[in-house]
């Protein structure tokens, strides 16, 4: 009987050890859609004339998943984080200590102290569970809900957390390069725009659209030159980290990605909105370019066609702080 218990303890200890060191490498590969769109990071962007099909969801982002849920505020997330489950926090620590103590006792030969020791341990666990439940109920009874503590009405709080829906809708279209036409916009009147239709809640101007088109060329050119300083100046730190990772992978494999002759064929606003002091704008852009992969040493083309341009349709999201400079914050593939 003692040998069986020792074998079970050894097996359980090994299982716990491998559980802690196991790593999931499924998400280690860089995805084609990355970055942050604020609270809308994990929401589908509206389809547009340029991109009638929905874009792939963001695969890599430093934005917490809870932030993408409508009406989920930072205060609520903090409160939820400070309320561990029954076997979390103090209760989990005590219970874990008892279990590990028993397992190590088995390994050393003393075990749980026989049947009486096992019963005593079970009684201790039950007492801890009951005591933890009573303490949690006592603390919850003394702490009022966040809405009451702040004197805020739940409806008013939801109105503050959720972005306001405009009465009208601005939809902008970026004409083809070289057409000579100015960047124009048309405003739709009537009721609030549906979530599946393009919307502009901050009033994107023609100057903003010119900036977005310029950023497209700047990012592609800096990436081809492997100019880290230039990329850092026109992208967010998060996007910069993903682009730097890709450049590093290319260098490690002895290859270099050249993206040349970038031309914006068509583009339009999918949605633009404000979150506190930050403005976000997501644009569907269809552009052509010569995209090839070259051998870093010989310069020979190993992937792509250097003589024919290919078209790409992506959703680029830009962000600006306090009305400052727009920076690239996310790229999503169609």
In short:
The chain has helices at residues 2-21, 74-81, 89-108, 114-142, 146-149, 154-161, 206-225, 228-234, 237-252; strands at residues 34-35, 169-174, 184-188, 199-200, 255-275, 278-295, 301-303, 310-321, 327-333. It has 334 residues and is an alpha+beta fold.
Which features characterize this protein?
9-stranded mixed β-sheet, 334 residues, alpha+beta, 2 domains, Nuclear Transport Factor 2, Chain: A, 23% strand
Describe the structure.
By secondary structure, this protein is of the alpha+beta class. It is built from 9 helices and 9 strands. The protein has helices at residues 2-21, 74-81, 89-108, 114-142, 146-149, 154-161, 206-225, 228-234, 237-252, and strands at 34-35, 169-174, 184-188, 199-200, 255-275, 278-295, 301-303, 310-321, 327-333. Strands 1, 2, 3, 4, 5, 6, 7, 8 and 9 form a 9-stranded mixed beta sheet that branches. Strand 8 (310-321) and strand 9 (327-333) form a beta hairpin.
Q: How far apart, in Å, are the first and last alpha carbons? A: 62 Å
Structural class: alpha+beta
Largest sheet: 9 strands, mixed
Q: What quaternary form is this? A: single chain
**So what's the CATH class of the largest domain?**
Alpha Beta
Helix content: 25-40%
Number of domains: 2
Given the C-alpha coordinates, what overall shape results? extended
Average pLDDT reading? 72
The helix tally amounts to 9
**Rg from C-alpha positions?**
28 Å
User: Using DSSP, what is the number of strands?
Assistant: 9
CATH topology of the largest domain: Nuclear Transport Factor 2, Chain: A
Low-confidence stretches: 13-31, 66-91, 144-195
CATH architecture of the largest domain: Roll
- Give the percentage of residues in beta strands: 15-25%
The string of secondary-structure elements, in order, is HEHHHHHEEEHHHEEEEE
């Amino acid at each position: 009987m003692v040998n069986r218990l020792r074998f079970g303890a050894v097996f359980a200890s090994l299982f716990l050890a491998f559980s802690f060191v196991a790593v999931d490498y499924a998400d280690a590969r860089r995805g084609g859609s990355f970055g942050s769109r604020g609270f809308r990071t994990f929401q589908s962007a509206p389809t547009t004339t340029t991109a009638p099909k929905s874009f792939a969801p963001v695969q890599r982002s430093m934005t917490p998943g809870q932030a993408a849920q409508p009406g989920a505020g930072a205060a609520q997330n903090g409160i939820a984080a400070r309320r561990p489950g029954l076997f979390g926090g103090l209760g989990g620590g005590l219970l874990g200590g008892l279990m590990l103590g028993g397992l190590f006792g088995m390994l050393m030969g003393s075990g749980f102290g026989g049947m009486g020791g096992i019963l005593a341990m079970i009684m201790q666990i039950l007492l801890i569970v009951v005591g933890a439940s009573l303490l949690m109920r006592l603390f919850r009874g003394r702490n009022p809900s966040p809405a009451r503590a702040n004197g805020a009405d739940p409806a008013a709080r939801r109105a503050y957390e959720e972005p306001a829906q405009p009465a009208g809708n601005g939809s902008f279209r970026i004409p083809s390069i070289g057409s000579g036409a100015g960047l124009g916009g048309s405003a739709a009147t009537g009721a609030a725009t549906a979530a599946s239709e393009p919307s502009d809640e901050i009033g994107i101007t023609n100057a903003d659209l010119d900036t977005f088109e310029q950023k497209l060329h700047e990012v592609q050119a800096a990436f081809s030159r492997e100019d880290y300083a230039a990329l850092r100046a026109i992208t967010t730190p998060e996007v910069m980290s993903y682009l730097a990772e890709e450049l590093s992978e290319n260098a490690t494999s002895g290859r270099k990605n050249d993206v040349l002759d970038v031309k914006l064929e068509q583009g339009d606003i999918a949605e633009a909105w404000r979150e506190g002091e930050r403005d976000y704008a997501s644009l569907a852009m269809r552009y052509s370019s010569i995209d090839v992969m070259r051998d870093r040493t010989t310069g020979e083309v190993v992937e792509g066609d250097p003589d024919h341009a290919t078209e790409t349709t992506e959703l680029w999201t830009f962000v600006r702080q306090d009305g400052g400079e727009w920076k690239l914050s996310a790229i999503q593939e169609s």
